[in-house]
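Quick one - inputs below.
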Amino acid sequence: MNAPLPAAATRTAPDRERRQAEVVAALGRVLPAHALLWRREETVPYECDGLTAYREQPLAVALPESERQVADVLATCHRLEVPVVARGAGTGLSGGALPDPLGVTLSLAKFNKIVAIDPKARTATVQSGVRNLAISEAAAPHRLFYAPDPSSQIACTIGGNVAENSGGVHCLKYGLTLHNVLKVRGFTAAGEPVTFGGDALDAPGLDLLAAVIGSEGMLAVIFEVTVRLLPMPETARCIMASFDDVRHAGDAVAAIIAAGIIPAGLEMMDKRMTAAVESFVHAGYDLDAAAILLCESDGTAAAVEHEAQRMADVLAACNATRIEASENEAQRLRFWSGRKNAFPASGRISPDYMCMDSTIPRRCLADMLTAIAAMEAKHELRCVNVFHAGDGNLHPLILFDANDADELHRAEAFGAEILELSVAMGGTVTGEHGVGVEKLSSMCVQFSPAERAQMEAVKRAFDPGGRLNPGKVIPTLVRCAEYGRMHVKRGLLAFPELPRF
Amino acid sequence: MDAIAAIVEQVRAAHAAGEPLRIRGGGSKDFYGEAPSGTLLDTTVLTGEADHEPTELVVTAPAGMRLVELEAQLAVHGQCLAFEPPRFTPATTVGGMVAAGLSGPSRAAAGSVRDHVLGISMVSGTGELLQFGGRVIKNVAGYDVSRIVAGSLGILGVLVEVSLKVMPRAPAEATLRFDCKPAEALAMLHAWGQRPLPLDASAWWNGNLIVRLRGSEAAVAEGATVVGGEPIAAPDAAAFWQSLRDHSDPFFVAAQEAIDDHDATLWRLSLPATAPPLGLAGDELIGWHGAERWLATALPAADVRAAAATVGGHATAFRARAKPAGAFAPLAPPLAAIHERLKRAFDPKGILNPGRLYPGL
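Output:
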């Protein structure tokens, strides 16, 4: 947890019970009985999100069913000075929805209505509990789709996507959540209705929408989102290329971009990841390759034909040892099946895995893989790698056994080392999963005390009482002091030469 | 003492003295927003090379660098700023471009300035040198402060350096012309918009709809067949889009005359693209496939603002001899409160470009 919890955290159990009774009684006046959970057996399903290593029981879980009830819950919590943790589907990977032990978890999962699809304006207005994939499904009859596609898109909600600024495999070409959201309607910490952005392409004043997107539920509670839809591409083709050296694969990524091509997707898997997914999905991956690239083109048939040929030419010139282009949709989906199942496949080869999410400049991909190989020896743990290579976003999966305390400790040290190297390379500790509680310590490395203080001040500007999702994203000074790592200057000013490995 | 240290010093001294500073780069947007005031803080001293990484699609440039120089450097590698920011004069700087947050003709298709901002170095109102974001495309570490600063007109900090996402220049483009009324133009644009066509920019003015397609050779060739219209020769098309982008084309020239001679105001109406023609008196140019409408008119500000608000948009008094009703549309109360607190969070004494965005901010 982030160092100093509210003073109340040190209260004794009877104190907590009294507080819980007070909060439950107050919320009971604004919610029907079935929309308020507080007994331990009822709150257990909400004790964690996708980051299961951290668990807490909230004082209560509120499951409002109307917009009015959301406002009332927030106003009640505001009056009682109770922390509020908003929650969507709970698929987040960084503990952003971890309950506050003295707070209320506000589930928005019941708000799953698609309010409007406007094909002429190419927008969809949906409640925050609508699943990511459900937006594209609802838009499909109009030959439109919602572009950001995080791997968890079957389950994750648009509210959670906005909170995390989620990416996916298509964001190099189509952008992140930030680039595809026009308007967010919700509530301030005090329960006051507020709208960020609008139906036009910009809004007057400061761009508060950009602040709210990716703020991990700390600035406002999101109730309804208006997203931009895009016309579905006529067709898509995926090229799978093998390399006998990760450096060649890394160079090929740079060469594709240098050729002026923006692929619809550009993904990399290392040899062990390929082996793991092949035994899981049997897609016919090249098991001899040191690295595999998946490179997708989409658009009209003629444009795709032309672009796919150019991609293949570049890959061949970069010493690809095998190049295969999908000939039909079934084959294209088979090429992707392994990449999309990288996480479950890793779950089959190890009791536990820790997924990193840093981003580095593309040109450092091969250096990073080499460095990770050295870290494996140092920490005596294995690591399998999948990358959103097109945007330099890494997902190294460190394999370990959580039942072995020493392995867990070594895995954490391994992960921290990857994140620190990412920052030193000019990158960031999280590309799309968010800071949550998981990467609080790493924030000490990426940001100076003054920068963290400025972020804290931004938080207070939106939420003066510090009630929304407290303790996430911004580490305290005490925590950073205890972590003991220096803030690494990212060299935005000095352009230092990057370390080579 | 280097230029950044000197700016830090100047801001610290101003903070200590409570002295307002007027942040200025090339001065090409002195007309924009509320009237500038305060002691000059000149960012053109922040010069130097841009660090362009073509294979990263990222460029990092000092705030005082001239935009035209940056674009020339990108062009060497076949890359560009996809959002086509206006260059009202050759002196326009990179920092001014980000601080003003104005995007050009391709904005509806390619995104805005803030969409392409990846990171910034800035000096806050207390004289702290801070860095947010970074030089990579995907980055969700902490709040996206760099994108709040984009378009903030300098009220939150002095930009020192910015990192931007750049894009390869499209290999092909085609410009097509149609004779039509505004409602017909909008109907055509919305119909095309629902199909996977490489529709990039559009402008309707004076009975003409001009449309630009951009993308691969194959996509543009196919798209041109679908869209139809009268093809405009490439040099003429390039000159047209450039003058539109930089506000030097006949519409904007006439608007300036209306301001000078008839005390008109040039309004920028940002509307949902599907809003119907508003039918306001004056000369109108429709861009961004309907989402941006320029109106040179002598109508009262309240009428223009009300018409924009009725359809879900807002109106900015872009150029005028005076802006008595404010440059920007007023904010809803909860947003105004957040604005005030954010301003104080970055600039507790209110010394940076005070009043430039809204009076009192």
